[in-house]
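[audit] Reproducing an earlier prediction to check determinism. Same input, same settings, fresh worker. If the tokens differ from the archived copy the diff job will pick it up downstream; this log only records the rerun itself.
[audit] input (84 residues):
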Amino acid sequence: MDTRYGPVQVRIDVSGGRISKIDVLQYPNGMQRDQDINSYALPVLNQEALAAQSAQIDAVSGATYTSDGYTQSLQSALDRAGLK
């Protein structure tokens, strides 16, 4: 999903009808600030999404655009996999 600072794209692996792994394929990283924000935000988002088994997770403070792009991309991946 495109965000103000660049695209965010995730890929999920599904096992037994559950998300088993989330890979972040694209995220804003063109500037040092992007890299700093996403180095802490993406692991938190991955952990929350795996725990929730859904895209209904809280945004990471200070990484609103990345969080929004992440949840939209995750929801799209879940829809394609036939999950909620």
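[audit] rerun output stored. Observation attached for the diff report: Strands lie at 2-3, 6-7, 9-15, 18-26.
[audit] end
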